[in-house]
Structure formats: structure tokens, C-alpha cells
Automatic annotation (TrEMBL):
<dbReference type="GO" id="GO:0046872">
    <property type="term" value="F:metal ion binding"/>
</dbReference>
<keyword id="KW-0547">Nucleotide-binding</keyword>
<dbReference type="GO" id="GO:0042802">
    <property type="term" value="F:identical protein binding"/>
</dbReference>
<dbReference type="Pfam" id="PF06418">
    <property type="entry name" value="CTP_synth_N"/>
</dbReference>
<keyword id="KW-0436">Ligase</keyword>
<feature type="domain" description="Glutamine amidotransferase">
    <location>
        <begin position="307"/>
        <end position="555"/>
    </location>
</feature>
<dbReference type="InterPro" id="IPR029062">
    <property type="entry name" value="Class_I_gatase-like"/>
</dbReference>
<keyword id="KW-0067">ATP-binding</keyword>
<comment type="pathway">
    <text>Pyrimidine metabolism; CTP biosynthesis via de novo pathway; CTP from UDP: step 2/2.</text>
</comment>
<dbReference type="InterPro" id="IPR027417">
    <property type="entry name" value="P-loop_NTPase"/>
</dbReference>
<dbReference type="InterPro" id="IPR017456">
    <property type="entry name" value="CTP_synthase_N"/>
</dbReference>
<keyword id="KW-0665">Pyrimidine biosynthesis</keyword>
<dbReference type="Pfam" id="PF00117">
    <property type="entry name" value="GATase"/>
</dbReference>
<keyword id="KW-0479">Metal-binding</keyword>
<dbReference type="GO" id="GO:0019856">
    <property type="term" value="P:pyrimidine nucleobase biosynthetic process"/>
</dbReference>
<keyword id="KW-0460">Magnesium</keyword>
<keyword id="KW-0315">Glutamine amidotransferase</keyword>
């Protein structure tokens, strides 16, 4: 079969759910039996997303092969239930970097190297390479930003060149926003018409317009878009606001979007099968018993909206685990700086069923997080620490149980008497050389679980409890030998010098990386769920396959 490509671009404005739309389209096509992959092309000059603050750009997602990328890659993994690899993510910075590198190596054989055609050619090379490596029948390519921006122009040029070369193998979807101004109460198509005209000026014509709006579009609007944007009326696809993003593939299928796009790509129509998705979407909407989970983050400078974006994989993991247990997750954002100022306010934690302390960097709010860990340990509130959350739980345990006064991570206090969390040796060299980009311990590494521990039980029993097999548990060998593989993003680790002493005080080392003897999971005994992971399990949770640790955490939280 010839490989096909679908480009998804944004008209009018950003943040209308282009990534989720692209991923949902992929879900439909996958359910029709095609092998589908997705690519994100971001227009910024950063080589990857690793150096960006999450409040700027949302969560930094990590692929199994260790690329720090845009959160949309997380959407693709969740919707397509595949592992997206490094070739599926590119930025303008990355593209220029390889063209310049090649130029320095004389690979252009003395030619003048120019923005056009060499940059679009490199973009096309990357797209085709990713499609080939993923053995994809259909590759969805999302272009970051919006039509009309100066900085994503060369990506559009790449689409034009591909479409010229193989017109029947390339489809173009414009995700647009149609406002319904409150003083008129009518949906307006003019901004979309203008975006469409701008797209035409690039030599491109959209095959479909995905109409993001507060409500479905009516026939009158469809006709207008057809006339002014040169599309068939039925190719204006309605995409109204939804309560749960997992409704989107189902809504698209109601409009037969999948077969319409196959038609444009000169492929035969196929039945789709979204029955599992329909089950999930139903569970997501059902009002059932509430499970209240506190999230102790810090990247929420402009209200809960940014927080949600900064911790999207954590939030989605909680939802997946809760829905499949017929629970309605209620998330509560915890401001840990408040606890530092007034420890009495910590008592608000007693109203929660469980607390997650997600990943993080630097000192802001850390003492407050340590207080949260202590409160959860002492009051037997289920606690789930992810990366920094695991390190924080270790520090708290060292200080308050092992009586190591002033114990800390050297990230915060390089001179601490008890560096129970310390920088990894190779990381020290990198930081001394100021090599910050893409230098953390990144991607998937093995972790051998300790029989009898909470996490061991969670990973080994999930197949029985959950609708599907565990994410990250593909290496299950035998009852007594479980090796899992999970994703990482950190520079610091539990200091092995203190391991014995911590264990003597009752800390359970529940998982260790066999190659480097690094502690991967800590737990405490006689507690419903007190687990900290050096890795990020949230990157492995899928809507139809909740992650074993999140599943168990939510179960214990709802039981407590
Ligand atoms: N700052 C910690 C480290 O670098 C934790 C990182 C994280 O939570 N992702 O080790």
C-alpha cells in the first residue's frame, strides 16, 4: 500500500484543540484497521521542548526513546495507543540544526544552501522517515501554530511540495474556530474565510474544515464555508465543545469523517469499530462516586488552566484509572507555598481521598511538599509521588523517621549534612559544562520490582482488575521476577550511601534499576498506599489501558 499523509493545520487562532483533533482522526482510522502514526512539527527555534518552562508551553512529554517533546505527542500516544518515537517530533530549531550540520559536512557539494528548498526538503525527509519507521499506512502531521504566522511558513511550503508531487496521497485539514459573539448570538464564518484565503496564498487548498465552535454548525454555515472556502459542504466537519475529549472520535465518526478522508486519499471506505471508546466516553460522563485527588504542583501561574496543561498526563492518568472503576475523579490543586506560611492549613488534606506530588524542579514550594508527604504518611492518606514527589517523600522520611535533621536533595541544598537525594555522577559533569539541553536521564529504563511490595502487587494483578493489560508491564516474566520499563526525566537520584539506613528505619526499596543499581521505587509499610517512583508512570497510561500504579492508587484512595 502507498503511504498516505494527512496534514492538520490551524486557522484563526491557537488552542482550539488541533492536537486532540489530529489524534481523534487517528483513532478513527486505526479502528478501521490501518496502521497510523502521528507527527508534531513545532515552529519554534528550541531544538526540543526540554528547556521550556511548563507554564510557557505546557507539559514536557517524554518518549520511550528519550525525546523531550510537546504535550501533543502525549495525546497521540493516548489516542492511538502506540509509542511515538523520536523521529515523530521536529521543531524549526531541529530542522535547521540538521541542515546546517549537513552543510558543514559538505553534503550539499558546494551548492548555495537556502531556506527554500532545503528547509522544506529536510522537513519532508523527516516526515517520510518517520512514516517508514512506524510502517504507517497513514501518517498524520500536525503543524504547530496558526496559518498566517511568519515562523511556520516553511512547513506549509513542505506540504505544498508534497501535494504537488503526489496529490492523491496528501490530504489537508484546517482546524478553524468559529466564534459565536454573545451580542449577536450567531456563528460567524468570516475569520475562517480569511484563514482559508491565506492558505490559498500559500498555494494550498484545504480538503476539510474542522469547525471548532461552542455549538455544532448548521447547514447555512456549511453552505457559506463551501462557497467561500472552496470545499464540499459535507467536508465542513462539525466539532462543537465537548465535556470529555474522548467524545471527539465518536463525534467525528457521526459525520463519517474517516471515510470522507479515505475518499480524498483515493482509498476504499472501511467500517470503524469504536465500541471500547464508546464505553470509555460513557464512563467519563457518568456521575458516579467521587474520588477527590489533590495535586501538589507549582506550575500554575495563571490559574488552574495552566496547571491542567502543565500536568496533563498526570491528570489524564487519574481520569483513566478512576473511570474504569466507575468513579468520578475530582481534582483539587494544592498550593504548597501556603502550607509553608501556615502549617495549620495542611488540615485541608484530610478532606482528600489521595494526593499526587508530580514532577518538578527547583526550590519553590518544596518545603510545603515535604509537609504534604509527612501529613499523608502520618494520616494514612494515599500518597503517590512521581519523580520529584518520590524524592520529596524520601527527604521527609529521612528527616522525620530516621531523624536525619536537615536531610535534603543537593538540588536544593548542596551543603546538606544528609544528601539523601544526590545528583547522578554523569549529570554533575554535564551541569559543570553547562550542557543543559537533552542531557537528563531520559526515556525508558528497566526496573526490577521487589516481591510483596505495593507496586509489585499492582503490576502483577492489574491484568485481572483492569480492562486491558498493563501499560509498561510488557516485560512480566514470572510471579517472582517482574521487570518493568518506564520513562524517566531527572538528574538526581536516591543516594545509595543512605539506602541501608533508610531501609533500617522502614523505607521499602520496591524497585531498582538493574544496570546502574538506582532506586526506582520507594514505599512505606502499614499504609494503604504510599508509593514514590523515580520514573514517570503518567506517560504510560492509556484511556483504554489505565496504568497499574494509578489504578491501584485510585482504588486505595476510594477505599480509604
Ligand atoms: N528535579 C528532580 C531531578 O532532576 C526531579 C525531576 C522531575 O520531577 N522530573 O531529579
Amino acid at each position: 500500500m502507498k503511504r498516505k499523509f494527512i496534514f492538520v493545520v490551524g486557522g484563526v487562532m491557537s488552542s482550539v484543540g488541533k492536537g486532540v483533533a489530529a489524534a481523534s482522526l487517528g483513532t478513527i482510522l486505526k479502528s478501521k484497521g490501518f496502521s497510523v502514526t502521528a507527527i508534531k512539527a513545532d515552529p519554534y527555534l528550541n531544538v526540543d521542548a526540554g528547556t521550556m518552562n511548563p507554564t510557557e508551553h505546557g507539559e514536557v512529554f517524554v518518549t520511550v526513546d528519550g525525546v523531550e517533546c510537546d504535550q501533543d505527542i502525549g495525546n497521540y500516544e493516548r489516542f492511538l495507543d502506540v509509542e511515538i518515537l523520536r523521529d515523530n517530533y521536529m521543531t524549526t530549531g531541529r530542522v535547521y540544526e540538521s541542515v546546517i550540520h549537513r552543510e558543514r559536512n559538505l553534503e550539499y557539494e558546494g551548492k548555495c544552501v537556502e531556506a527554500v528548498p532545503h528547509i522544506p526538503e529536510e522537513i519532508i525527509r523527516r516526515i517520510k522517515l518517520a512514516a517508514r519507521k512506524a510502517k504507517a499506512d497513514i501518517t498524520i502531521v500536525e503543524i504547530g501554530g496558526t496559518i498566517g504566522e511568519y515562523q511556520n511558513m516553511l512547513f506549509f511550503e513542505a506540504i505544498r511540495m508534497m501535494k504537488m508531487e503526489t496529490p492523491n496521497d496528501v490530504a489537508l485539514v484546517m482546524v478553524s474556530f468559529l466564534p459565536v459573539p454573545s451580542h449577536i448570538g450567531e456563528m460567524k464564518t468570516k475569520p475562517t474565510q480569511n484563514a482559508s484565503r491565506e492558505l490559498n496564498s500559500y498555494g494550498l487548498q484545504a480538503d476539510f474544515i474542522l469547525c471548532r465552535a461552542s455549538e455544532p454548525i448548521d447547514d447555512k454555515r456549511r453552505e457559506k464555508l463551501a462557497v467561500f472556502c472552496n470545499i464540499k459542504p459535507e467536508n465542513a466537519i462539525s466539532a462543537p465543545d465537548v465535556k470529555s475529549i474522548y467524545d471527539i472520535p465518536i463525534n467525528f465518526e457521526k459525520e463519517n469523517f474517516g471515510n470522507k478522508i479515505l475518499n480524498v486519499l483515493k482509498m476504499r471506505s472501511r467500517e470503524s469499530n469504536l465500541s471500547e471508546w464508546k464505553k470509555l466516553a460513557k464512563l467519563a460522563k457518568e456521575e458516579s462516586k467521587e474520588v477527590k485527588i489533590g495535586v501538589a504542583g507549582k506550575y500554575f501561574s495563571t490559574g488552574s488552566y495552566v496547571l491542567a496543561d502543565s500536568y496533563i498526563s498526570v491528570i489524564e492518568s487519574i481520569k483513566h484509572a478512576a473511570w474504569w472503576q466507575n468513579l468520578t475523579p475530582k481534582l483539587v490543586w494544592l498550593d504548597t507555598e501556603k502550607y509553608e506560611k501556615d502549617a495549620k492549613t495542611l488540615s485541608e488534606l484530610s478532606k482528600l481521598d489521595g494526593v499526587v506530588v508530580p514532577g518538578g524542579f527547583g526550590s519553590r514550594g518544596v518545603e510545603g511538599k515535604i509537609l504534604v508527604a509527612q501529613y499523608c504518611r502520618e494520616h494514612k492518606i494515599p500518597y503517590f509521588g512521581l519523580c520529584y514527589g518520590m524524592q520529596i517523600a524520601t527527604i521527609e522520611f529521612a528527616r522525620n523517621v530516621c531523624k536525619m535533621k536537615g536531610a535534603n536533595t543537593t538540588e536544593i541544598d548542596p551543603k546538606t549534612k544528609y544528601p539523601v537525594i544526590d545528583i547522578m555522577k554523569d549529570q554533575k559533569t554535564k551541569l559543570a559544562r553547562k550542557e543543559y539541553g537533552n542531557t537528563m536521564r531520559l526515556g525508558s529504563y528497566d526496573c526490577k520490582l521487589t516481591p510483596g511490595a505495593i507496586s509489585y502487587m499492582a503490576y502483577s494483578s492489574l491484568t485481572a482488575n483492569s480492562p486491558a493489560s498493563p501499560a509498561g508491564g510488557s516485560k512480566l516474566k514470572a510471579e517472582d521476577d517482574i521487570v518493568i520499563s518506564e520513562r524517566h526525566r531527572h538528574r538526581y537520584e536516591l543516594n545509595n550511601k543512605y539506602r541501608r539506613e533508610l531501609e533500617k528505619c522502614g523505607l521499602v526499596i520496591a524497585g531498582v534499576n538493574p544496570e546502574r543499581n538506582l532506586v526506582e521505587i520507594i514505599e512505606i509499610k502499614n499504609h494503604p498506599f504510599f508509593v514514590g517512583t523515580q520514573f514517570h508512570p503518567e506517560f504510560g497510561s492509556r484511556p483504554l489501558r489505565p496504568h497499574p500504579l494509578f489504578y491501584d492508587f485510585i482504588q486505595k484512595a476510594s477505599d480509604s
